[in-house]
Request: fold
Amino acid sequence: MTVAAASVSPRALALGTNRPVGWQLTSRHREQRIARKPDLNKLLVASGRGDQKAYARLFDAISGAVFGTIRKILIDQAMSEEVTQEVMLEVWQKASQFSPDRGAAVSWILTTAHRRAVDRVRSEEAARAREHKVGVASVEPSYDATGASVEERMQTEQLLATLGVLTELEREAIEMAYFDGLTYSQVADKLGVPVGTIKTRMRSGLLRLKGELANE
Amino acid sequence: MNNEIHDLAAPYALNALDKAERDAFARHLNMCGDCQREVEALSHGAAQIAIASAETVPDSLKERVLAQVAADAEARAPRRSRRRVLMNWLAPVAAAATLLMALIVVIPNGSTSVDDVLAAEDRVDVTLMATEAYAGTSAIATVAWSPERAAAVVTFARLDPVDSDRVYELWVIEAGRATPAGLFLPDAGGMATLLLEADVPPGVAIGVTVEPLGGSDQPTGDILFLSEV
Reply:
């Protein structure tokens, strides 16, 4: 693959050191967080019927996660905005195809967003732009240095807390795939671990993130 | 062998498959209920990473998307409500998109027009699904169908351009027999809205192929979209 895709992500570097302990969200916190959210399935179904107000509420509820995910993968601000715009328009246009029976709206939207960003980062043009930006980002002070905005620190903390439930190998495998767009066999190569192990760790890690496997 | 394909559920949920494996697993997924449940659960896990990655969206981005959505809704809406919607969204960005999307090709079909179908009281909207031959396209096609008039209007967005010696052809397919239902080319934005030039009674399917310029009597290209009304 490309040079950029094979490089270590700035998040991987930031998360690899001084990983905080005790930041895991308890299941009660998680429930509270979810309980406050509007019902995305209903909003997406209503959007599919042409309800623009429902779509605007859906946009407010989910676009932050869409944009944040895409930006952490593509790094470049303008390209991330462009891809976010494409994804959110596609959500509107394909909303009528969505059926809550076949899965949750949140997974559907965020999977689409992630896939679009990964497709883009695997293309050469994006890889070049990203390589440059990652190079710049890696010499910048780390997030916990003074000077990072409160918002930036909170964003990082939330990500650290979420990924903090994973074992080391699960976290490395998932980060390389999720943020750097590597395939599982590239991840296996890079970590020097059999592909079967990577697939297993990706699975256990994702189930742990979903809260189905207890923290070790 | 079968186990191996099931093992791809987690890399699939992480989009960590190369294109060939992704396509192969997607085909398998259509047929495997276990994998569908597994992918849904694993995607939920992956979604937690996205949620934790959330960042503030620039206001300008939100405005652009909502303007595009309004323009898109307006292009699909029955014509009588257009003027009012248009006035609400006469921002410069929206106006350009709206004018592009409002280009309507009207082909007479007896006494029925595009507007008649779009405004029909018994109008039913059906998504025209891309087939496997056209998998991966971002094109979107919807059918507005009036059972009473046996007429349908198809609207395309983001349709790929075709070579200069080719044209898109619509078909009404009934019991394995295809009837030509019109030729068209999308505009520069990949948009097209047109009335089918054949009756569309209940139970038939609507299909789209690419044919040599001038059209064909029977489909010769792959069926790119196909759905029953």
